[in-house]
Each structure stands twice: as C-alpha cells, then as structure tokens.
Amino acid sequence: GHTLAWHNQQPNWMRPMEGAPLRQAMINHINGVMNHYKGKIYAWDVVNEAFDDGNSGARRNSNLQRTGNDWIEVAFRTARAADPSAKLCYNDYNIDNWSWAKTQGVYNMVRDFKARGVPIDCVGLQSHFNNNS
Length: 133
Prior knowledge:
Blueprint: E1 2-6, H1 19-36, E2 43-48, H2 71-82, E3 87-93, H3 101-116, E4 122-126
Parallel strand pairs: 1-2, 2-3, 3-4
Helix pairs in contact: 1-2
C-alpha cells in the first residue's frame, strides 16, 4: 500500500491543518485505511519522502514535520497497532547512494528506530524511470 503519510498528497481539508489537530488527523487516517484493508495488504509505505533533498540529511519542512519530530515514529507505531501482521516501510527517492546526506539521514532514523523498538520492517528505494532518466 502506498502511502499512508505523505506531505505532498494530502486531502485539501488536511493541508491547512497544523499541530495537534493534524497529528490526530494523521493517526485517524492511518487507523481508518489500515483497518479497512487489514489482512489484505502485505506491506505499507507508512511514511513517504520525509527527508529533504540536499546536503543536510534533515527532515523535510512539512506540515507533518511541524507536528513534532516524533511524527514518523507515531505513524509507524499507529500502523503496527492497526495491523500487526503487515510489513511497515519507509519510502523515499535519492537514498541509494551511501555518501549522500539524505541516505545517511534515513539510515540514522532506521537505526534509531530499530534500537528503540519502533516497528519498521523495510525501506523502499523509490525510482522513476522515463526517457530522460
């Protein structure tokens, strides 16, 4: 399933939200979608494209990020509770070169999550292929 929480694809009513109401809307969305498809989807991209391009390795400045630095962890914990048998993935593009800051940012997040027991099972390396690339 692609994707449960993504800064770029939110319903229009969600885009102006911020803070606690946005956090709760994300949780409600994850619960609603995952409960609807429980047992039918093998793996979910729980969070998509949360890291910024460039040399910082930092999180993308988005309305979701502004709900608190733990929003990705909350999304993964919510997803595990909603469907304990589904594989939970983080998905992003431009994270396939070890020397890139974005790759390191994602790696450090996953390493931290694994060390603290945050449920994450996989990382998707997103690619778009066309005539020019």
